Amino acid sequence: MARVSFAAVKRVAIALGWIVLFYVLAIGVDYGLTKAAGSWWTGTALSVVAVGAFEIIGFGLATYVIGRLLKKYSWSGLGWRRPGLRRFARGVARGAVIAASAIVLGVVFGARLHFTGDWSAWAAVALPLILGLVFAALGEELGFRGYPMRHLADAVGVLPAIIVLALPFAILHAWNPSATVFSTINVGLAAIWLSVAFFSTGGMPLAWGAHFGWNAGLAVLFDAPVSGFIFHVPVVEYTPGLHRWIDGGAFGPEGGIVATIALIAGSLFLLTRANAFSPQPAALQEMVAA
Fold first, then answer.
1. Rounded Cα–Cα distance for residues 252 and 238 (Å)
2. What is the tens place of the pLDDT at every residue in 121-139?
3. Which helix (H) or strand (E) element contains residue 236?
4. Spatial distance between the Cα atoms of 263 and 9, rounded to a whole number of angstroms
5. Is 288 helix (H, G, I), strand (E, B) or coil?
6. Which of 28, 69, 190, 193 has the lowest CB atom count within 10 Å?
7. Could you tell me the end-to-end alpha-carbon distance of the chain, in angstroms, rounded to an integer?
């Protein structure tokens, strides 16, 4: 029977302690900002923007304090690689294509798309939503990739870190409207897909772009629910079919097998690219060698 060294257990425990401290600081700041802002923004077009902005401030501050100042990671080590804009745009395109693939599969198996042609209210609804989805995607990437993923991977390895952090990401979405066991599994698959993007040479900009592209592809391009939330974007109306296990029903495509297929395909695409994983830190290489 293989023995686990005390040094390895200690290293993992210390890493988890730092990650817990990261979340305590980030969530505390986010909660404080939410309380200080009051409720003026709830139920308005700016609600998604405000929620995303508070997450960015909380997780961004925790990244800087814990990741940069205390743990001495470089920005490159935390996934921020140049040229960032090009990598972000590439991620947006890939995320939107995968979202469109899920929608097309849903339509093939019974979902419906109806084009209303009503452009008069599109900008008032879509533009704040796009900004909010950009913010929300960055906030979640800072919270579940970024410093936590980098630090945990240094302690336990890349694959275990991806699996471990996919679990809370999925569980947090289990309380969304119309969530099911199937939708929770698919959100976990989405976390794995985004983590593969994060560990690629595209780093955080690619993962951020892919996250935004997926959400915006569903909500802005097709007016489909995103993780149970409906945004009522005009011009296109999406209606799920009769079989929830196929197209996700009220939760949106993420609740059905169409998203399972699309997300697995997206992950396999990234894994088969040249230089799919960027070089790992020496600490991780030493741990694997041991």
1. 9
2. 899 899 999 999 999 999 9
3. strand 236-239
4. 33
5. helix
6. 69
7. 16
